[in-house]
Amino acid sequence: MKKLLVVVDYQNDFVVGALGFEGADQLEPGILSEVETVLEQGGFVLFTRDTHPQTYLETREGKHLPIEHCIAETKGHALFGRLHRYEENPVPHVSVIDKPTFGSPDIAEKARELCGGEPDQIALCGLVTDICVIANAIILHSHFPLAEVSVIESLVGSGNEENAGASLRILQGMGIEVRG
Known about the structure:
The protein is α/β, with parallel strands linked by helices. The protein has helices at 12-15, 28-40, 60-64, 85-88, 107-115, 129-143, 161-173, and strands spanning 3-8, 44-50, 94-99, 121-127, 148-157, 177-179. Strands 3-2-1-4-5-6 form a six-stranded parallel β-sheet, with helices on both faces. It is globular, with a radius of gyration of 15 Å.
């Protein structure tokens, strides 16, 4: 059984930076515990990092969300808190992927590469529920139709709880489990 945990964009700019919101920092202990548990069980962990160039405001996304954030190689781009160690000191079964927009066009390929084939179980956590988490959950669900895909509700967050709740309901409607 190949288990994959995807930690979506748990980066400084989404927690305490340009797009940070109240309570985002409180997810860190739970996400860290989940990462450690998956690795102890022989599973795999894939971190995504929202990654933008200095010219972000000129991009399509930048025109719709005109707040500079997660500019490559800045403090805001780095994984938050104790999770930062996974990008600083690579360990077996862990990988980091930079993505240029909400959903990663390379996430399925990277998941296959990391797991040595198709994952059987995929769980997602991180930020932001109603933007990047939902986008990547749908991509993974589409690429791995035989995998059990879930979102860990207690380990995702958004500054817009109404949209976050709607996003989780949409995912449930698609057959993606929303669990504790």
